[in-house]
Design goal:
With 187 residues, this protein is α+β, with helices and mostly antiparallel strands. The chain is 16% helix and 19% strand.
C-alpha cells in the first residue's frame, strides 16, 4: 500500500503543456539575437587575426617627427602686481604694507667665514641644451627633455630652438650636432 498526499477520489492528471505549442515572436527574436551575438563573438577574433594590418600599432620610427610650423613669436606682456587695479570695494587693512620690499630680519644670519680657498681645479659647467640624446636609428634620433620625448631628424627644431644639423657617429658613439654648434653625445 502506498501513501499519497491527495484524497482518494481525486484523479492524478499528468502535467501537460498548454495547447499553444509554438514560440512567441518575442522568444524567437531573443533567441536569434543571442545566436547572432555568439556568432559575432566567435568570428571577430578570427577577423582580427586574418587582417593584422587594420589592427596593428604603428611602429615608432615610421614618419613621426617633431617638426613644428614656423610661426611668429607671441607678444608677452608682464604686469606687476602693484600696477593691478583693486576692483573690490573693501578697504585695505591699515596694519599691512601693500608693497613687497623683500627685507628679512637679522635673526639666524650666517657669520662671515672669509674668502674661499683656491684649489686650482676648475669644474666644467653642464651643457645648457636642456635635452639629451637617447637613441639613433634610421636617420632619426630620440631625444628627451623635461617636457617629454621627441623623434627628430636633420632639419627638425630642437627644444633649445636650434635645428638638428647632423647625426654623426664619433668614436663609436652617436652624437647630434645642432645649428648652434653644440654637440650632444648619447648618455
Amino acid at each position: 500500500m502506498t501513501v499519497t498526499d491527495f484524497d482518494a477520489d481525486e484523479t492524478i492528471q499528468p502535467l501537460r503543456r498548454s495547447d499553444r505549442t509554438r514560440y512567441s515572436t518575442g522568444d524567437k527574436i531573443l533567441v536569434s539575437a543571442g545566436v547572432m551575438l555568439a556568432a559575432g563573438a566567435a568570428f571577430f577574433p578570427w577577423y582580427v587575426f586574418l587582417n593584422p594590418a587594420k589592427f596593428s600599432v604603428p611602429t615608432l620610427w615610421e614618419g613621426k617627427t617633431r617638426n613644428l610650423p614656423e610661426t611668429a613669436g607671441k607678444e608677452v606682456v608682464s604686469v606687476s602686481p602693484a600696477a593691478m587695479v583693486d576692483d573690490d570695494n573693501e578697504p585695505a587693512l591699515e596694519s599691512v604694507d601693500p608693497v613687497a620690499t623683500a627685507t628679512t630680519s637679522g635673526l639666524g644670519a650666517e657669520k662671515k667665514l672669509g674668502a674661499p680657498v683656491e684649489t686650482g681645479l676648475t669644474q666644467p659647467l653642464p651643457l645648457g641644451s636642456g635635452f639629451r640624446l637617447m637613441h639613433v636609428a634610421n636617420g632619426r634620433a630620440l631625444i628627451e627633455d623635461a617636457r617629454g620625448m621627441y623623434i627628430v631628424r636633420v632639419g627638425s627644431i630642437l627644444p633649445d630652438n636650434s635645428r638638428l644639423a647632423t647625426l654623426e657617429q664619433r668614436d663609436g658613439a652617436w652624437v647630434i650636432v645642432t645649428s648652434n654648434g653644440n654637440v650632444i653625445e648619447r648618455n
